Amino acid sequence: MEKDSKSGLGGLSGNGLIAVMLLLAGVLFVREAPLETTRLPAGESRFAQHFSLQDVDARLWQDPFGAVAKGRVEARKNDAKRAEADDARRTAADLAREIRSRQPVEILAVMLPGGPYSENVESRRRGRYAVLAGLNASRLSPVDTEHLGYFFPPVRPGPYARSPEPIPYEWFEPTLDARGNNDDLRRVLVMWLRSEAFDNAPFARMAELARPFLESGASWRVIGPNGSDGLKAMIDEAAKSSLKGKVPAPPMRFYSPYATVPDDVLLPDAESSLADFFESRGALLVRTIGNDGGLATRLIDELELRGLRPLTIEALGPDRGESDPPPTLTAQQEVEAYRKACRPSDGEKPDPAPSHVAVVAEWDTLYGRSLRREFRPAANERGFCINSFNYVRGLDGQLPAGGQGASDSASGGKQAPGDKDATRRKDGTFIERAEGQSQFDYLRRLAVQMREKDRRVRAASADGMGLRAIGVLGNDVHDKLLVLQALKPEFPNAIFFTTDLDARFLHPREQAWTRNLIVASNFGLRLRDELQGGAPPFRDSYQVSTFLTTRIAMDDARHPTRPLSQAAIARWFKTPRVFEIGRTEAFEFYGRPANEGPQKATSNPCRGEGWTACEDVHPPASARYPMPREATLVLIASLLVLALWAPALFISLGARRFLGRFVARAPDGSALLARYAALAVLAVLLQLELPLWLAAHWQPFAEWLTREGKPLTAFEGISLWPTEAIRVLNLVLCLYLLFRGWGALTRNLDEITREFHLGRTRRELIAEQREAQARLRWWQKLAQVFSMRFVPAASRSKQAAHGMLAPALDFWKRYVAQNRLSARLLRTTAYVAAALPWSYLIVLAFDEERSVPYRGDLSLAVHDGLRIPSLVAMYFLVFFVVDATAFCVGFVRGLREQAANWPEATLDLFEAQTGIPRAHLDNWVDLQFIALRTRSVTHLIYYPFIVISLLLLSRSAVFDRWTMPVSTIVLSVGGAVVALGCALALRLAAEASRRHALDLVKDALMRANAKAPAAPGEATPKQLELLQSRIESLRMGAFAPFWQQPLVKAVLLPFATLGGSTLLDYLALANI
User: Fold this and answer.
1) Class of 291-319+328-396+439-521+574-590 per CATH?
2) pLDDT confidence tier of residue 190, bands split at 50, 70 and 90
């Protein structure tokens, strides 16, 4: 009987199978191994030979300022006098003479941040890489790929004059394939300028720097300024007086790929646009990137799709008709309307209440200060109730290399054991100290402050919602990541958003706080393939902007009489991009469809010299749904259809009998063939025609399902559709398990009836019960489902017919009445009806904010539509198993209390099998019946744990921004505990019956040993000892050892599910 406890997979348990599957998943879905170089380190001494002024060692991706500084330091170490003499001949005049010898020359001055911090160094690397990639796409190649040159600009006169910083440069020339095309290509000299040198009077300083080069005949273009603060300085200088006479003629042209503060924030009220403002003052500047106002508008739209309710100041104005123009509100009226909606007085709770959004922004830049204002509503413009919080850049406390604390990290360098103990809390955890260079302690207190604000907003809001979304706005990505790291655990249900896409958001180490981050950006990480020029995707969106700007500047250099206008450039930024950070990619929602046909995709002239006429420079949006081959779709649809009808046919004995009768009752051979043909046609329709139809309609269905909604992705972590699919599976599985459970119980009872020769007795009991029920009133019929007090007692005549005592007959009649399917379903329904209100009270008691990561009305409607049916189906299955187990517990206890439980035919059977007189067999037959019956009942305990495990799995963060509510855990544990308690009660009742039977056998054995040798028809002591041994060794059903019980494995199933989903999350962090 031990074999019943083993599985059919060589003894491999269900939980072991889960572990094996998870390990296989880890092996099969390893994404990529880290790259490793085979290059040997450079250990040889460098031998420098100077043949050109461009002689500083530098890779094409290196920071130009750092490379020049390092080269000068090494030169001074090797020969200080020679290095000083070498610097003396690196003047602007010398470079101007070189330019005259290479005419025509286009000078491209690129402004980069000159700060010493690591983020400035990385910004310079990225800026140089993007500019050089843009030049390469414009068919220009570096003259020297391994060296930079530098020169010293003239010393500015004045009392505070100091030695100028060297300006790196490098030469470019047309590629070999472009030199014979006669398309006005020139040599290009790229100068790398420190933007800080132009903080004051930028136009005047730029004109002063450019003068000797313009006099030598070169053309001058500037990629800059390097940020909104620099652009504001240019506006301030131009606003004071006209630039005519200060800027050389023809005027130098500025291209701004970094500044994103809107025109209306930067300009005086009377000005219309930034380009017009500068042109009217004698300068030319075009923006090659969209502004923050467009990003904020797109984020507001995106947050509204995700459930936030925006506020419109116009809606709070005076009442007006539909045809009336919008009211004109004064600034004071706007402030008052905003306060009334977002800061209501005590007792006021506007309904519907606008959503509250927290904006955490750096306050030491114009970019951070202006961007947070873009999310507030203005006259006839939507926005949210904004709660502002601030931080300063450099949260990690890192200082420049070479300065005090140069190597200090966020924690102030390596800590000694004593320092570690000083930062340890009493509970063993660590907390940052409120001193030193690190600013982490400010983040901790900021999180506490925001939690308190969230509590107050929740208490004052009519819908009980707190801070629905949190925006993290700033220039420094490292600071953003730290803020996300501090706030994400404190606000697990909030939607986090930011601006400007960066590849660092996708790093596996950052996934714990960047997953599901919404990013609005003017660019992705690349342009469309025709414009990208073979360059790999960049590291951030500003690199893409710089790349595009370089291409625009070079195109203007080829056609100086018809440069690209601001209006032509601005059309590329009408629709900012919106991304959601997934496990392996930044998923883009807006843009051209990914499955756009080739004719439509190539209809714009985006190739060759006319690329500036391209209508859309951005690549297609991410694919919202998979589009496999037609054969694959048909195969998947066929398997799904098979999974719907095959299990039903397998578990339904009635369906199989119907098909058998349908074929067997054919009157002749032709009719038999016709019926087989009908079944074959039905099978073809089900397994071929229906899958073909489903495959043909997959694309329009997927398009409808994902339009303005979540994509159909499985493990990217940004889609709720896997969760909804699991809920549908759970719903179908509940129905399947209900039918399977009832079928298993019925088949088990039929099997016991045959083995125990109970067929005649069972039929007679069923007939008696029907006769008795016909005489009952409706309320008695209903009551007997729960209590058998209303079942009439057995008559004496029936007692003789069955060979059983009247109490035993009454017991069996109760069993027959309450074992009916209708009785089980009615009891289960009553349990569910009683449990649902208690569950609702538990949910209310925890007062948790409901969080559904939906996007668009359709995904929310699907989620809400499945919510109640899947919950009720799960409750019904759980309590169906509870009822089956509890009913079996009562039956086991009842058998123990009765005498003469079995008819003559059953006792004759067991007497013939064992040779033991029937006087000692009644309890042995009881135990055999209990073992066979509970073997089926105990396996039902898996069912609740299967559906509970699927419920927990559906809320896994592997699929989307799901959190596990405490109420869900409590209800799941409660349902599991109820089912587990019934299973334990069944085990205890079975063991009590075993002990009772053993006591009776031991008593009989004592009596047999005290007598003379047994007379014929009496059990011998040896027989009783063997019977005792068999009772003690019984290991079937509820009598199996505890560790072999299904309930032990079932309890481990939810833990394995949670552990498996958590393991998948950690595998994602490990880039697996």
Assistant:
1) alpha beta
2) very high
- Residue 234 sits at the vertex; the CA angle it makes with 233 and 238, to the nearest 5 degrees, is 120
pTM (2 decimals)? Answer: 0.85
- Strands 167-174 and 147-151, bridge-based pairing: antiparallel
Using CB atoms within 10 A of its CB, is residue 664 exposed (0-12), middle (13-18) or buried (19+)?
exposed
Place of tokens 């979304």: 469
With pLDDT > 70 as the criterion, what percentage of the chain qualifies? 80
Cβ proximity of 360 and 386 under 8 Å: no
Contact 56, 46 (CB under 8 A): no
Residues 6+ apart with CB under 8 A from 539: 126, 502, 503, 504, 525
Say which residues have a Cβ less than 8 Å from residue 324's Cβ, sequence separation at least 6: none
Pairing of strands 385-391, 356-362: parallel
CB 875 within 8 A of CB 882: no
- 364, with CB counted inside 10 A (0-12, 13-18, 19+), is middle
Cβ atoms of 1047 and 980 within 8 Å: the answer is yes
What is the crossing angle of helices 1046-1069 and 922-939, to 10°? 20
pLDDT score, position 538 = 96
Contact present, 555 and 583 (Cβ < 8 Å): no
In eight-state DSSP terms, residue 686 is I
Query: Which strand ranges, in their side-by-side order, compose the sheet holding 586-588?
Result: 385-391, 356-362, 467-473, 495-499, 518-521, 577-581, 586-588
Structural contact between residues 121 and 153, judged by C-beta atoms closer than 8 angstroms: no
For 139, the token pair is 């068919």
In whole angstroms, give the CA distance from residue 530 to residue 616: 11
One DSSP character per residue, 607-660 reads: SGGGGGG-S--SPPPPPSS----HHHHHHHHHHHHHHHHHHHHHH-HHHHHHHH
* Amino acid at residue number 1068: A
Query: Checking DSSP bridges between strand 495-499 and strand 518-521, what pairing results, if any?
Result: parallel
Q: How far apart are CA 581 and CA 717, in angstroms?
A: 9
Cα separation, 361 vs 389, in Å, equals: 6
In total, the chain counts a number of residues equal to: 1072
Q: Report the b/e string of 491-523 with b at 16+ CB within 10 A.
A: bebbbbbbbbbbebbbebebbbbbbbbbbbbbb
For residue 343, the model assigns a pLDDT of 76
Residue 1064 confidence (pLDDT): 53
Contact 233, 239 (CB under 8 A): no
pLDDT in tens, 894-948: 888 777 678 888 888 888 888 888 778 888 888 888 889 888 888 888 888 888 8
186 Cβ partners below 8 Å, 6+ apart? 104, 105, 106, 174, 219, 557
Whether the predicted pLDDT of 380 surpasses 80 = no
Phi, psi for 166 (deg, rounded to 5): -65, 145
Report the alpha-carbon distance of residue 74 to residue 1044 in Å, rounded: 75
Q: Looking at residues 742-746, what average pLDDT do you find? A: 88
Contacts of 101 by beta carbon, 8 Å cutoff, 6+ apart: none
Q: How confident is the model at residue 580 (pLDDT cuts 50, 70, 90)?
A: very high
Residues of the chain with CATH 3.40.50.2300: 291-319+328-396+439-521+574-590
The alpha carbon of residue 68 and the mean position of all alpha carbons in its chain are separated, in whole angstroms, by 45
Please indicate whether residue 909 or residue 681 has the higher confidence score (pLDDT): 909
- Write down the pLDDT at residue 327: 59
